[in-house]
C-alpha cells in the first residue's frame, strides 16, 4: 500500500492544478489566466509541446483520473481524507464493483468517463451537490456485484463455443440464401433485406425500412428504441435494490444511460456497421501475427522491396516501380514467388527434416495431453458451480456414480466440445463443403470416431474433451485477461479518457479499402501452400478476392443488427434468466408489490 501511494504522489502532472495558483498577476499572462497554459515568466517551465506524453492507460494515471472525477469533492472520501498527504487506494475509497481490484480499476475508469461526459456536464449546472453522482455509483456497484455472482453460474464454454456460433451460422445461412434469392430473375421479392428478415425476424427491426415507404424507417427506429428500453428495464427490475427500484426518476435516468448511450449509440449505431466490424477483425488478425521479436529478426533480413505493407505486397495499392512490365501482374509474396522453383536435393532434405520436426512435435503434444488429462477437472465442475479449483479437482477424480446427483445430471446434459457449433460455423463460413468436400467428409469421419470410437475420447468428460476444456479455460477464459480487455476497450472508445471526435463514416470507396485490408490481413495468416490448396489458385489477387467474398456477410448494417441484437439478447438472458420466464411488468409487480 505504501509503494502504491508513493507512486501516485510522484505524478504531479496528472493531478489538478493547485487552487492558490495566481491567474493574472504575472506580466504577460494570457487572458483568462488558465492555469494549464504556459506562462511567459519562468524560463524553466516547459511548454505544452515540450511536456512528455502521458500514458493515460497506466494504472497510476488511471487511479489519478478516477480520483479527480469521482472523489474530487471529498464527498465519498470522509474520515479525514482531505488532510492526508498520500491518497488512499481506490479500493478503500469507492465501493467494490467486483472481487478483483484490477478489474474494478478499469471499470471505474470507464464509469468516470461516462459520468464526466454525460452527467456532470449538465448536472453541475443545476446544483453543486454530488449526492446524486454518489447514488449512481452505489447503484452501479450493486448491479455489478450481482452480475458477477450470476456470471459465475453461466456456462461460458457453451456460450462462446456453441450458442454464439449457432447465431453466426444462422446469420450466414440466411444472408447467403437472401442474396441468392435476390439474383433470381423471376423472383417475387428482389430485396435481400426483406428475404433475410422473413427468414430471421426480429421485433426491434420490423418493419423493413425501404425507400418506397419512408415511414417504415421511422417506425423501425421507434420499435428499436422500445426494444432497448424494455431490455434494460427488465434487467434493472431484477438487479436493482428495492429502494432504488421505487425511485422512478433514478431508474429512468439509469435506464436512459444504458439504453440510449450504450445500446443505442454504441452498439446499434456503431458496432453494427460493416466497416467497423472489418476493422475489428483486422486488429484481431494482426494480434495473431508473428511475435514482435520474430518480425524484428525477419525485417532485418528482408530486402527493401520486401518490406512493403500487406496491401502493396499483394499489388493492390501500387505496382513495382523497378519493372514496368509487371504493372498488370499482382506482386506475390516471397513464398509464392518460389512455389514453382525446381526441387533440388537440399530442398527435399530440409523438407523431410521439417516434416519430421512437425511429427515429433505433434507426438509430444499428444503424449503430454494423455499424461495430464487424468488430472484435469471434470467439465461439470467448471464454470457453473463457483467452486474453488481445489474442490473441483478433488471431485473430478471421483467416479461418476459417486458424484452428487446434480453433478451427474449436469455432466450428462453438457454437449461435447467437438460437437459444438463452433466447428460447423467455421466450416460454413469458409464454405468448406463446397471448396473441399473430401476434407469436410474426412472431418465428419474423425468426429464420429472420437465420439463413438474406442475410448470415446471426444465424448463429454472424455480425454480429448477435458483437454479442450482446460485449454479454453487457460487461453480464452482466463480472468487475468479481463483488465487488459477493459483497458483496450477504454483506450479505443475514450482516447485520453475523453470522448474522441466523432468519426466520419467512410465513403463507399474507403469502405472497400477497409474491407480489402481486412481480407489481406486474414490471408496473411495462412501459409502459402495452405492458401494455394484451399483457394485452388496461386494468384494472390484471386485469393484476396475470394476472401473479400467471404466477408460480404457483414456488408449491410441492417442485417448485422439481426446478429448483434441476437447476441445481446443471449447474453442478457443468460445473465438474467428471469427475463426468459416472465415479462417486465410481472417482474416489476413482484418486486414492488
From TrEMBL:
GO cellular component: early endosome; late endosome
Keywords linked to the UniProt accession: Cytoplasm
Compositionally biased residues, Basic and acidic residues: 48-58
PANTHER family for the chain: PX SERINE/THREONINE KINASE PXK (PTHR22999), SORTING NEXIN-16 (PTHR22999:SF23)
Gene Ontology BP, a term: early endosome to late endosome transport
Protein name as annotated: PXA domain-containing protein
Region Disordered, residue ranges: 1-58
Residue ranges occupied by any PXA domain in the UniProt entry: 100-289
UniProt subcellular location: Cytoplasm
Polar residues bias (residue ranges): 1-11
Molecular function terms from GO: phosphatidylinositol binding
One matching Pfam family: PXA
SMART domains per UniProt: PXA
Species lineage: Eukaryota, Fungi, Dikarya, Ascomycota, Pezizomycotina
Protein origin, superkingdom: Eukaryota
Organism of derivation: Lophiotrema nucula
Amino acid at each position: 500500500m505504501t509503494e502504491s501511494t508513493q507512486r501516485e504522489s510522484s505524478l504531479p502532472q496528472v493531478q489538478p492544478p493547485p487552487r492558490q495558483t495566481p491567474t493574472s498577476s504575472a506580466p504577460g499572462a494570457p487572458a483568462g489566466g488558465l492555469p494549464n497554459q504556459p506562462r511567459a515568466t519562468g524560463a524553466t517551465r516547459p511548454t505544452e509541446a515540450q511536456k512528455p506524453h502521458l500514458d493515460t492507460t497506466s494504472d497510476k494515471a488511471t487511479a489519478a483520473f478516477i480520483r479527480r472525477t469521482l472523489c474530487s469533492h471529498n464527498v465519498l472520501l470522509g474520515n479525514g481524507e482531505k488532510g492526508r498527504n498520500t491518497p488512499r487506494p481506490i479500493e478503500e475509497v469507492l465501493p467494490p464493483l467486483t472481487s478483483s481490484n484490477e478489474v474494478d480499476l478499469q471499470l471505474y475508469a470507464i464509469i468516470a468517463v461516462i459520468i464526466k461526459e454525460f452527467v456532470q456536464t449538465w448536472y453541475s449546472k443545476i446544483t453543486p451537490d454530488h449526492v446524486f453522482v454518489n447514488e449512481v455509483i452505489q447503484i452501479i456497484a450493486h448491479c455489478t456485484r450481482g452480475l458477477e455472482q450470476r456470471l459465475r453460474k453461466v456456462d461460458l464454454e457453451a456460450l462462446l463455443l456453441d450458442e454464439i456460433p449457432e447465431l453466426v451460422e444462422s446469420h450466414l445461412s440466411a444472408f447467403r440464401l437472401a442474396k441468392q434469392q435476390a439474383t433470381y430473375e423471376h423472383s417475387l421479392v428482389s430485396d435481400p433485406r426483406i428475404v433475410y428478415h422473413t427468414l430471421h425476424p426480429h421485433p426491434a427491426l420490423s418493419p423493413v425500412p425501404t425507400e418506397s415507404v419512408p415511414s417504415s424507417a421511422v417506425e423501425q427506429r421507434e420499435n428499436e428504441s422500445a426494444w432497448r428500453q424494455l431490455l434494460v428495464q427488465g434487467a434493472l427490475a431484477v438487479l436493482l435494490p428495492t429502494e432504488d427500484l421505487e425511485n422512478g426518476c433514478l431508474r429512468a435516468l439509469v435506464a436512459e444511460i444504458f439504453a440510449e448511450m450504450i445500446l443505442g449509440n454504441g452498439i446499434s449505431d456503431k458496432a453494427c456497421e460493416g466497416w467497423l466490424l472489418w476493422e475489428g477483425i483486422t486488429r484481431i488478425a494482426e494480434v495473431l501475427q508473428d511475435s514482435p521479436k520474430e518480425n524484428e529478426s525477419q525485417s532485418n533480413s528482408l530486402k527493401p522491396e520486401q518490406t512493403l505493407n500487406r496491401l502493396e505486397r499483394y499489388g493492390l495499392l501500387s505496382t513495382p516501380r523497378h519493372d514496368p512490365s509487371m504493372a498488370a501482374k499482382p506482386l506475390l509474396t516471397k513464398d509464392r514467388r518460389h512455389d514453382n522453383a525446381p526441387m533440388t536435393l537440399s530442398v527435399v532434405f530440409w523438407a523431410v527434416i521439417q516434416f519430421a520436426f512437425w511429427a515429433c512435435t505433434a507426438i509430444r503434444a499428444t503424449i503430454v495431453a494423455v499424461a495430464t488429462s487424468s488430472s484435469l477437472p471434470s467439465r461439470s465442475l467448471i464454470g457453473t458451480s463457483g467452486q474453488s479449483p481445489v474442490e473441483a479437482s478433488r471431485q473430478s477424480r471421483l467416479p461418476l456414480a459417486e458424484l452428487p446427483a446434480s453433478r451427474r445430471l449436469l455432466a450428462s446434459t453438457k454437449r461435447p466440445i467437438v460437437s459444438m457449433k463452433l466447428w460447423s460455423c467455421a466450416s460454413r463460413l469458409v464454405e468448406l463443403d463446397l471448396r473441399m468436400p473430401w476434407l469436410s467428409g474426412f472431418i465428419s469421419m474423425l468426429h464420429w470416431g472420437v465420439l463413438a470410437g474406442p475410448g470415446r475420447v471426444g465424448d463429454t468428460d472424455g480425454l480429448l474433451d477435458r483437454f479442450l476444456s482446460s485449454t479454453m479455460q487457460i487461453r480464452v477464459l482466463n480472468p487475468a485477461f479481463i483488465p487488459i480487455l477493459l483497458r483496450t476497450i477504454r483506450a479505443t472508445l475514450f482516447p485520453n479518457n475523453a470522448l474522441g471526435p466523432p468519426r466520419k463514416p467512410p465513403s463507399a470507396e474507403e469502405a472497400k479499402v477497409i474491407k480489402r485490408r481486412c481480407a489481406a490481413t486474414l490471408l496473411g495468416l495462412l501459409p502459402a501452400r495452405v492458401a494455394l490448396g484451399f483457394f485452388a489458385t496461386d494468384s494472390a489477387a484471386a485469393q484476396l478476392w475470394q476472401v473479400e467474398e467471404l466477408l460480404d456477410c457483414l456488408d449491410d448494417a441492417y442485417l448485422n443488427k439481426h446478429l448483434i441484437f441476437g447476441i445481446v439478447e443471449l447474453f442478457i438472458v443468460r445473465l438474467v434468466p428471469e427475463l426468459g420466464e416472465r415479462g417486465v411488468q410481472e417482474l416489476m409487480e413482484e418486486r414492488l408489490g
